[in-house]
UniProtKB/TrEMBL annotation:
This is Fe2OG dioxygenase domain-containing protein. SUPFAM superfamilies: Clavaminate synthase-like (SSF51197). PROSITE patterns: FE2OG_OXY. Gene3D superfamilies: B-lactam Antibiotic, Isopenicillin N Synthase, Chain. It comes from Phytophthora kernoviae.
Length: 289
């Protein structure tokens, strides 16, 4: 995917409705979880494959995928990626079932929140670059945001959804914050890294913690495939009356370098139940640069 020319990538720039829906190529520096950081990576975003020609959708997180249209982009590639999306959906449901059985005695409980979650879930393919190459990359034109602090692969954050499955390459770079320090998440061949998302943390009252993590990739190029499994668009976000009830970010309330991390509720109290889809659309819109 990332071997496509800059011209091909530019021909299918990420589709944005201004409200958090993203499909297509995301250029270097075009997203960041922190306004003061430049994330030196490019990405390709796709989701549920709808029937060809479908134009009406139930919500703002549903919509058609955007694929390369060049002679060297085979139809088989699209089929492989769609099959991979389906398998990651199945794997997420299997993990949710095991967690549900352990926590609540029945495998179906957590799945009830995600009956149509696959239709808004997204797969993201990431390509990280050494920071020193930023100015020479397409999209990385050397301009830096006001109050710029640093380059990074991915800013410290928690994942906002239900569950995240990560396939990383041997280069490494994924780190989780625990016991007041950043810890490398090792590469293990044939395995996936599973992160609980903020929504799962909320509905389990913190039994499944949503960890703060980041990606550092300052020396070598790095690739990863990340599947964000979501609950239903209309899934209710539980009322939160006390910040301590959030249990988002685990023990990372005081991240060592005092950098804020980007979570679903931004560490705030919600006195009125909200809709997951509305929140997630605002969150994705907020990281677009």
């Amino acid at each position: 995917m990332f071997m496509q020319t800059d011209e091909t990538k530019a021909a299918i720039p990420v589709v944005q409705n201004g409200k958090g829906f993203t499909r297509g190529f995301i250029g270097v520096g075009k997203e960041s979880g922190s306004a003061e950081r430049v994330e030196v990576k490019e990405a390709f975003s796709y989701g549920y494959e709808w029937p060809e020609g479908k134009t009406e959708f139930a919500n703002g997180l549903q919509g058609p995928n955007v694929w390369p249209k060049t002679e060297d982009w085979a139809v088989e590639n699209r089929q492989v990626l769609n099959e991979f999306f389906e398998k990651m959906t199945a794997a997420s449901r299997a993990v949710a079932g095991k967690l549900s059985k352990i926590l609540y005695g029945r495998a179906e409980f957590l799945d009830e929140f995600c009956q149509k979650g696959d239709t808004i879930s997204i797969m993201r393919m990431f390509h990280y670059f050494p920071y020193e190459r930023y100015a020479g990359l397409a999209g990385g034109n050397g301009s830096l945001p006001e109050n710029f602090q640093e380059f990074i692969g991915s800013s410290p954050h928690t994942d906002w959804g239900f569950l995240t499955l990560i396939m990383q390459d041997p280069v490494g770079g994924l780190q989780v914050f625990h016991d007041e320090k950043w810890i490398d998440v090792p590469y293990e061949p044939g395995t996936l890294v599973a992160n609980a998302g903020d929504y799962l943390s909320l509905i389990t009252s913190g039994k499944c913690l949503s960890p703060v993590h980041r990606v550092v990739a300052d020396k070598r190029e790095r690739y990863s495939l990340v599947f964000f499994y979501y609950p239903d668009f209309d899934a209710v976000i539980p009322t939160v009356n006390d910040v301590e009830e959030l249990r988002i970010g685990g023990d990372a309330r005081n991240v060592a370098d005092s950098t804020p991390f980007n979570n679903l509720l931004d560490g705030t109290v919600r006195n009125v139940d909200g809709c997951f889809g509305d929140y997630i659309m605002d969150k994705w819109a907020g990281v677009q640069r």
